[in-house]
Amino acid sequence: AWIIVDDNTGHVLAASGQNEQRQIASLTKIATAMVVIDWAEATKASLADLVAVPPEITGVGGVNPCQLQPGDRISLRDLLYSAMMSSDNHAAYTLAWNVGSRLPNPQGLSAVDNFTAHMNALARTLGMKRTLFLNPHGLDSLTPPPHSTAADLARLTRYAYKHPGFNFYVSQPTREIAIQGADGTPRGFLLSNTNELLGRDGIEGVKTGRTNRAGDCIVLAADRPPEAVERDGQKIAIPRRIIVVLLASADRFSEGFALIQRGWGLHEQWSAQGRPVNKRSSI
Q: Could you tell me if 80 and 88 are in contact, meaning their C-beta atoms sit under 8 angstroms apart?
């Protein structure tokens, strides 16, 4: 399943199976990041604040790239980088555990479950009608498993790019983060972005994902210089960014890059037609 969307308008340039519910693996972490970023903006909280890695971290599955251990301290910002660049399940869980305890919790849920409830609230706000989040990292061994669609993830990604800071967490090839051990000993870790397509044909993000159920998944965003057009005697610059969501791919990088190239061709044709947009062709 896949979709190609103009970020500026939400116009769907092309799609196949875009509304089919599928597992999305670590693409889930886009929603995790946005709940944290929205919370920080709303409360004026500093993402530089150090937070504790919880004891429950030992029960989180998947690779632990930074070797986070209970009692470690790390900034919310570095957790975001690790979750988005290295697809770190343990970083995503630590974000949810810390931020979930500070979010409104009328149902009296655990911190992580409360955080996940806010992820689903965000999905409802964005019109992601075929999406259900069950955790902050995207592991899907649950029954029934969490799910979303290519179209819903495009909606989420468009929302993410409305926040200027989001791009910092997904566009860097590498970044060094700092972790303070439980005994106070500092250690550094160099993150490497799992997105092998960064920098090709304007690609600046966004997120990779993979589980046995989901297969290979990827969300890509690519920029080109703004297009200068004349309207009512004035020249204006129109941003050009396309978003590609690809789920259950056999080869996410080659297929994803092919969709980006196809997307730019379709975008040029659409622009030449005057960029027509209607509700039926938009998300």
A: no
In eight-state DSSP terms, residue 145 is P
Show pLDDT as tens, one digit a residue, over the chain (283 residues): 999 999 999 999 999 999 999 999 999 999 999 999 999 999 999 999 999 999 999 999 888 899 999 999 999 999 999 999 999 999 999 999 999 999 999 999 999 999 999 999 999 999 999 999 999 999 998 888 999 999 999 999 999 999 989 999 999 999 999 999 999 999 999 999 999 999 999 999 999 999 999 999 999 999 999 888 777 778 888 889 999 999 999 999 999 999 999 999 999 999 999 889 988 889 9
Cβ atoms of 172 and 85 within 8 Å: the answer is yes
> Which is catalytic among the residues 29, 148, 171, 249?
29
Q: H helices within the chain, ranges in order? A: 29-43, 76-85, 89-100, 111-125, 150-160, 166-170, 252-272
Contacts of 235 (CB under 8 A, 6+ apart): 228, 229
Catalytic residue among 26, 86, 171, 249: 26
- Active-site residue identified among 75, 82, 86, 87: 87
Number of Cβ atoms within 10 Å of the Cβ of 227: 14
Q: Does the annotation count 26 as an active-site position?
A: yes
What Rg value do the Cα atoms of the chain yield, rounded?
19
Alpha-carbon gap, residue 168 to 102, rounded angstroms: 24
Instruction: Tell me if residue 192 is catalytic.
Output: no
Joined tokens for residue 83: 């979750």
Statement: the pTM of the whole predicted model exceeds 0.90: yes
**How buried is 255 (Cβ within 10 angstroms: 0-12 exposed, 13-18 middle, 19+ buried)?**
middle
